[in-house]
Amino acid sequence: MGYHLLIDGEAVPTAEHMDIFNPATDELLGKCPVATREQLDMAVAAAAQAYKTWSQVSDEDRKNACHAMGKVLEDHAEELCKLLTEEQGKPLNGLGSRFELGGCAGWSHYTAELELPVEIIQDNEEGRVELHRKPLGVVGSITPWNWPLMIAIWHVIPAIRTGNTVVIKPSPFTPLSTLRMIELIAGVLPKGVLNVVSGKDELGQMMSEHEGIQKIVFTGSCATGGKIMASAAPTLKRLTLELGGNDAGIVLPDVDAKAIAEGLFWGGFINGGQTCAALKRLYVHADVYEDVCTHLTEFAKNVPLGNGLDENVALGPVQNKMQYDKVTELVADAVANGARVLLGANPQDGPGYFYPTTLLADCTDDMRIVAEEQFGPALPILSYTDIDEVIERANAVEVGLGGSVWSADKEKAKAVASRMECGSVWINQHGMIQPNVPFGGVKGSGIGVEFGVDGLKEYTTIQAIFA
């Protein structure tokens, strides 16, 4: 099928296109339209015009619109799942495309039911003060390539639920599935409420600088987040930035190594490790270190890797060559500096960006694969003996998105969790986010939160009325 921009409810062609390839086969999947500055201006103008009426519709109508978008996602799930697998690489099954589309629909319906009622701050003989939550205007959404559809929904639904209008730009690595999804769900909205433009990285900078956009919500790398913050500064845009993590997991000595192996694996290898809040560094107490390494390896070696269209596959390729090369480089560096290979670390020539599931023992904090976010299917495992020391090691990074503690004693685990410098900490699991729980990072992992009432408020401004 052909792909196009969607501006003011109309399909808009472009003069320039980019080739998009299937990361599992290297085959051409489709051609992505490349928007010009003028077309971005058109999209922003359409969103601004639509905002005049959308911001005034009833709360009930906005709620129903979000439910309607969720229903469209359910009705077209298999079509979108297949395209997502072909474009992103993740498998149809397991924690793959069907999981992602289920999340899209679930988040849509849950967010539809959230409300921001008027708050009464004061009501006495001296007067009444009400706090009203008002929409911001045009929201610019810039999404990444790892969970392209679910993260688009995380941006779009709360914006529309609160009365804003949207211009969304997908990653140039995975634009096609988002173009198709937006085309589908925009059909239940008034023209101009939801617009999509696609193109190269400079389009994102144009959005963050654009005077007609009141807020940018961005999910992606710390480096790009910093650039967006700088380019948004002259227009004082509101920002929600969900950036990188280098999540640590701490395994206490009282664990049953076999019992936690599956949870550890999927904590680190969900989406092939291409997840902001995946387990990126695993610290294991010396008393159980070899047991954990053994059982984790036993589980990992039986997880099938391959083309995600195969219903039996549980892990797909790395999404793009840039990331594949980075993972290859970081693993090679670790091995050269003394890491012990438990599994993998032996990439084969294509087709596709298939990097083998890799477990590295005897890693040290100064190895690049520990200090940097690898964002791929390779997990470094480090040993410790002292709990105070390992907490300090876990916190000794410039980011703080997620973390986890693994223990048979939940109270002991919670005590450790409270000392970890990150926005979310899980006990005996990792990365299990929920639509009712605020999600965000500390330090370099971003600004603001997503999900729940707190996430909804990020798309509003406060107006106090004194009566």
TrEMBL record:
Into which family does the record put it? Belongs to the aldehyde dehydrogenase family.
Q: Which SUPFAM superfamilies does the record associate with it? A: ALDH-like
Where does the Aldehyde dehydrogenase domain start and stop, copy by copy? 16-464
The record, for CDD domains, names: ALDH_AldA-AAD23400
Q: Per the record, a Pfam family?
A: Aldedh
Single GO MF descriptor:
oxidoreductase activity, acting on the aldehyde or oxo group of donors, NAD or NADP as acceptor
> Entry's InterPro entries?
Ald_DH/histidinol_DH, Ald_DH_C, Ald_DH_CS_CYS, Ald_DH_CS_GLU, Ald_DH_N, Aldehyde_DH_dom, LUC3-like
- What is the protein name given in its UniProt record? Aldehyde dehydrogenase family protein
Name the residues annotated as catalytic in the UniProt entry. 242
**By its UniProt entry, which PANTHER family does this protein fall under?**
ALDEHYDE DEHYDROGENASE-RELATED
**Keyword annotations of the record:** Oxidoreductase
